[in-house]
Amino acid sequence: MQEIHKAIYYETAYAGVTLGALTLSHGTILIDAPLRVEDARLWRGAVQALSANANRLLVNLDTHPDRTLGARAMECPVVSHQKVAQAFRSRPSVFKGQNADSGSEWEAQNDAVGTRWAIPDITFTHHLHLHWGPPSVFLEYHPGPATGAIWAIVPAAKIVFVGDAVLVNQPPFLAGADIPAWLEGLALLLKDYRDFQIISGRGGLVTVEAVQFQKNLLTNILRGLDKLARRKAAPEETETLVPSLLSELGFTSHTEEQYMLRLRHGLYQYYARRHRPIEASDQD
After folding, report:
1. Where does the pLDDT of residue 277 fall: very low under 50, low under 70, confident under 90, or very high at 90 and above?
2. What are the pLDDT digits (tens) for 139-183?
3. Contact by Cβ (8 Å): 254, 170
4. In this structure, are strands 27-31 and 19-24 parallel, antiparallel, or unpaired?
């Protein structure tokens, strides 16, 4: 666990996504949940040891199973964007492991299937201010990476948790993305948050250079998909973009197959949804 400001932490040790915790006077605000139930219990215990106040509130930064499957095990109210709640209400109450070749972290966990979703208790549309401190925490809707994507911003500490808006040395999740909106969010980060500590949902603390790299990568993806669309290519042809996109990233060999699956799945679904909607299937 890394302390990046007084009473503000992030943790990268658990499977799934980077976690955050703000141990404030009114209680602890948690950013995302560990994927595995056992890890959620461990994280809950670690956070409890930091604060004498037993109040907890969990913020889910979007709908992705990697950050939401463990929410119920955190045993506290959940807040998210209203689109997250809408997505959960349209799903079976128990996670059935759909889209098992999406290159997500949950696919490597044998016990992920069968987990019950925790539908958010509190939702909002554009902004929500949490006054549990000081400092105050501002939740803002920033569409792009996934359904109901939000940032958790702590202006007084100059810290922003951005979820999957910026990823470190791994390809983006594209199946449910809106790339133009995503690029707008990254431009905002580069303009208004340059002097903030930016916490990625998959990698922890990142630099402004990492934000720019993410912006460049998404721009290249959009150009490649637009070229395919102009010649009315079939969705299957998006696979031709995978090798060059992977070559731009630095990652270990044991994640190569996972990341190849992620790009292949995401490119196909994004292209089919945008340019050949009759061929697209329901995705997050």
Report:
1. low
2. 999 999 999 999 999 999 999 999 999 998 899 999 999 999 999
3. no
4. antiparallel
How far apart CA 208 and CA 131 sit, in angstroms, is: 28
- Which CATH code fits 2-279? 3.60.15.10
Whole-number percent of the chain with pLDDT over 70: 94
pLDDT of residue 205: 96
Q: How high is the pLDDT of residue 95? A: 74
Instruction: Say if residues 18 and 46 touch (Cβ distance below 8 Å).
Output: no
Torsion angle defined by CA atoms of residues 25, 38, 259 and 230, in that order, rounded to the nearest 10 degrees? -60
CA–CA separation, 91 and 108 (whole Å): 21
Q: Domain segments of the chain: what residues?
A: 2-279
Long-range contacts of 195-198 (CB under 8 A, 24+ apart): 195/158, 196/158, 196/159, 196/160, 197/4, 197/5, 197/157, 197/158, 197/159, 197/160, 198/160, 198/162, 198/166
Q: Read off the tokens for 189.
A: 């980060």
Q: What is the dihedral of CA 138, 143, 144, 149, to 10 degrees?
A: 50
End-to-end distance of the chain based on CA atoms, in angstroms? Answer: 29
Helical residues (DSSP H) of 170-255, grouped into ranges? 179-192, 208-230, 242-247
User: Directed axis angle between helix 208-230 and helix 256-275, to 10°?
Assistant: 50
Q: Is 31 left (phi over 0), alpha (psi -120 to 50) or beta?
A: beta
**Each residue's pLDDT tens digit, 147-157:** 999 999 999 99
Give the model confidence (pLDDT) of 221-267 as tens digits.
999 999 999 999 999 999 999 999 999 888 888 888 999 999 999 99
